[in-house]
Amino acid sequence: MSHHTSPRILVVEDERTIADAVTSRLVAEGFDAVAVHDGLTALDRAREWSPDLVVLDIMLPGLDGLEVCRRLQSEPTSPPVPVLMLTARDDETDMLVGLGIGADDYVTKPFSMRELVARIRVILRRVERAAAAAADNGANGSGSDRATARVLEVGPVRIDQGQRRVWNDGDEVHLTPTEFDLLAALAAEPGTVLSRETLLAEVWGWGDASGTRTVDSHLKSLRRKLGQDRFRTVHGVGYALETGQ
């Protein structure tokens, strides 16, 4: 994680009552949280404050949340700041666009504060794991046996778990931290159908089934990046990563 003690959360939400409610709850949960109410201010604030995560409403005046997310992801910071999107419309296309341009997760309004905080903690844990993996990799660069053990190949998809990088047919594919963890969970048992509940528990760390939409939309995003036929859907059950070409 970053050098500051409490994780910094930038809340971008033009409805003041929601913005205030979210920031005060985050502060109560031990985060350092600040709210801004439009996209341009959000980009300025993110540059000067380096938040650990941005909670971003899609429906903003001026620059909408999708454009803000796109610009945040193209900033030269490495890795880009994780984004949790808020959407009032239960609209899959918006969310898929959001996930496609680098958002890590989303919550549909109305949401419970408990769920929002849980999602934020999961994303921060995931980012921390990625950073630890990268540091670990750097420290043990010479241990090639360790490195090779962490590369999974499933058909044309190659997953380097140490560096958290993915190639499809030899071309590197950019995945968000969430997409990477979902792919890695499926790749650990290639050809095996994993239920959405299993994936929720493994990837998101929560067990209630209300999040199955989240699994579905991230899987759609993976399909778009890696190819429709890489994944098999078993309706009403879950998903498998195909082993063949």
Describe the structure.
By secondary structure, the chain is of the alpha/beta class. It contains nine helices and twelve strands. The strands form three sheets. The chain has a five-stranded parallel beta sheet, with helices on both faces. The protein has a four-stranded antiparallel beta sheet with strand order 6-7-8-9. Strands 10-12-11 form a three-stranded antiparallel beta sheet. The longest helix is centred in the middle third of the chain and has 27 residues. The termini are far apart.
Question: What would the principal axes of the Cα set say about the shape?
Answer: globular
Number of strands: 12
How do the strands of the widest beta sheet line up side by side? 2-1-3-4-5
Count of helix runs = 9
* Radius of gyration, whole Å: 18 Å
- Oligomeric status of the shown chains? single chain
Helix content percent band: 40-55%
Helix/strand/pairing class, anyone? Answer: alpha/beta
Distance between the termini: 38 Å
Keywords:
245 residues, alpha/beta, 5-stranded parallel sheet, 12 strands
SSE layout:
Blueprint: E1 8-12, H1 16-28, E2 32-36, H2 39-49, E3 53-57, H3 65-74, E4 83-87, H4 92-100, E5 105-108, H5 113-139, H6 144-149, E6 151-154, E7 157-160, E8 165-168, E9 171-173, H7 177-187, E10 194-195, H8 196-204, H9 212-226, E11 231-234, E12 238-241
Parallel strand pairs: 1-2, 1-3, 3-4, 4-5
Antiparallel strand pairs: 6-7, 7-8, 8-9, 10-12, 11-12
